[in-house]
Amino acid sequence: MRFLQAISRLLATQTSAFIILVAILTFWKPELFLWVKGDIQTAILGIIMLTMGMTLTPDDFKILAKRPLDIFIGACAQYTIMPLLAFSLVKVLQLPNGIAAGLILVGCCPGGVSSNIMSFLCKGDVAFSVGMTTASTLLAPVATPLLVLWLSGSSIDVDTWGMFRSILIVTIIPVALGAFANFFFGKKKQYQELCSVMPGVSVIGLACIVGGVISYNGQHFFTSGAMIFAAVFLHNSLGYLLGYIVGKCTGMSKPKKRTIALEVGMQNAGLATNLSTRHFPTLPDAALASAVSCVWHSISGTLLAGIFLLADRYSEARAEKKEQESRS
Fold this sequence. Notes:
Blueprint: H1 2-13, H2 15-28, H3 38-55, H4 58-66, H5 68-93, H6 97-108, H7 114-121, H8 126-152, H9 160-185, H10 189-217, H11 221-249, H12 254-265, H13 269-279, H14 284-327
Helix pairs in contact: 1-10, 2-10, 2-14, 3-9, 3-10, 3-13, 4-8, 5-6, 5-8, 5-11, 5-12, 6-8, 6-13, 6-14, 7-8, 7-12, 7-14, 8-9, 8-12, 10-13, 10-14, 11-12, 11-14, 13-14
């Protein structure tokens, strides 16, 4: 068990590198992940969401009641900034239907679980991060399909009911099962040890989903890769910036500003990848855009958390220097 826990910690801290490695390997050996499709892909995503649920305690749900204003601001930012940014980029960059569908879907998805890890790493407000992720995930079955339908217009055929059903199956049900398991068994040592390896399972699952998309659609990257990355980069970066501005404008503390920036900018692109594969099968670039988002959000989240920590060190060094000067 200790070996598995060590592997899990390594994967959790090196998520970006591991997913990039899998993506590159799959690009050259597509047959490695051809098995990740359809119901298998859905099951893998369900396992990822189950691992999230297994970390939730009754106290996490109390956060939703104790901090309603913070959560409300966060949820509004989550489901307005990213969807509208995606829609704006589609129009400004004149993106083709496939990339447009993928980007809008990523924008309309709830916050990603990895944002909780990044919030912890950069000394953000972890409780607020968990509360935002929980709230946006609970809202997703209704908010995501309706927003995709509204923003896509008539250019893309959207099965709203089918998307609602898919999100319910792969998010709400596994999260609820995980939360119930934690409620009943959370104090047992064996359960706690099992939970300690779940972050690694989540990272491996995410890598499998990315690998599956690249196995089937990697060849399209040469024709639209630059455009996809440009759209994903702008969408993600502007999301971080605008999320931070929302925190600043609403008078949030520094930890909360960092958290809302990460929560808004980092989407559950694994869910978007699954939904695009299932509901936009005739638009392969939609799944590819979602998979690129999956990889890039992990990288950029790690980089942003590092920048926040560097800013702290710089501030501490300046404060120490001023103190030394005042003494002298």
